[in-house]
UniProtKB/TrEMBL annotation:
Any GO molecular function: RNA binding
Entry's family note: Belongs to the polyadenylate-binding protein type-1 family.
Keywords per UniProt: Cytoplasm, Nucleus, Repeat, RNA-binding
Organism: Vigna angularis var. angularis
All residue ranges annotated as the RRM domain in the record: 12-90, 100-177, 191-268, 294-371
Protein name as catalogued: RRM domain-containing protein
UniProt subcellular location: Cytoplasm; Nucleus
Keyword Ubl conjugation: no
Amino acid sequence: MAVPATVAATQASLYVGDLHPEVTDTQLFQAFREFESLSSVRVCRDSMTRTSLRYGYVNFMSQQDAIRAIKVKNNSYLFGKVMRVMWSHRDPNARKSGRGNVFVKNLADSIDNAVLHDLFQKYGNVLSSKVVVYDDGKSKGYGFVQFESEESANSAIENLNGSTVRDKQIYVGKFVRKGDRIVPGNDSKYTNLYIKNLDSDITEALLQEKFSTFGKIISLAIAKDDNGLSKGFAFVNYDRPDDARKAMEAMNGSQFGSKNLYVSRAQKKAEREQILHNQFEEKRKEQILKSKGSNLYVKNIDDAVSEKELRDLFSSCGRITSVKVMRSEKGISKGFGFVCFSNPEEANKAVSTFYGCMFHGKPLYIAFAQRKEDRKTQLKLHYAPQQARLNGSSAAVIPGGFSSYFYPNVTSHMLQSGLLYQPLGLGPGWRTNDFTLPTRSFQQSQVPIVPSTNRNHRLNRGRMNGHTNSVGKAHSGVYIPQLQHYYQAMDSREYLTA
């Protein structure tokens, strides 16, 4: 086997893919140790979980040993899984370009990597061949072949597409990455048909005979379960779009066996999901427009209330089209639901009649139902002015130390008595909480300092403001009625040494 032109003359590194997840570096080394110039091996792992990525690299000192390793080890078994061994391509552009890559489908179950390699190698140098399988090793019916050159890939497509391999007509075409695949529209040309409502005894031979009258068929397959029994649907791929369209128009709804066939254009899963999503959205919008102003949101419903009771209550206001009490996964009522009337006038009557009325011991809250997005927008507009005022307020945090808010006449009396009083709400690390200083000055005679004699009162205020001493009791202090504030006593010696 010649060294591919894409591999440098000094390179002797091989890529080993489809490894068993439990294969370690040591076990991979043991698998290739028969080659004397083996220099190193590595199983690639996830950087976070350290789990195997199921591929690795084997490096040789000799190019000849690397070539021989590909011949001997490619498609061999390690831990019960078939390894793919090929030249390592470090250039990501070469790997991701899709150059020389061929997609093959409708393969027989007996075709594995080695058989696929032998089937395509006559058209050029095959770098890699892979049949996609399930976890149990069973073939999914399609695979990929990587050629060294684009010319070899084109030659294989031209000669093998539509050919019969092991009693199945295979499809061979250029590989297209998923991101580059174009989802066809309703007016696009297509060749692949989806057929369902097949009798269990319909064989691929009978289907081929029936549908081949409309044109050349490239591939045909009936879906089967694990026991080999028909699932009742199949795919037929024509060579020309016009033939596929004629077959669909002629066979859709026609009787074949004991059932009427359903024939349509085969769709990819992503396309089918997109179509179903669009249909759902259209129906939902129609329903919203139809029930606009007629659908009511009912809250504060007792858990024991059923949909029938809710319907009976509101039926006096008009014709009800639907009633729904929302429930959890366990069937327990969430306390709200919806009642939809035939027209807005009846809904308005229900709101004015039953809003706030007692039902099963609870007052009902009733409003017109809104979409979640509309309700969020409405609430955002409603609370925007308040949020703006909150964001604009600048209540500064007073740093550690003492508050800058002092009352001259009060503090002079405190200093004379050897005490300094500090507002509890303005201590170190506390916000001012929009506390506004009085504009007029207080005289001592107008502001008598009244010692608080009520121990419970002092204790409760101390707990409320979070000031307790080391044994959990509130600090003693004085209460000034005119200021409606409680002041904490502090020894002046503590103030001088602070």
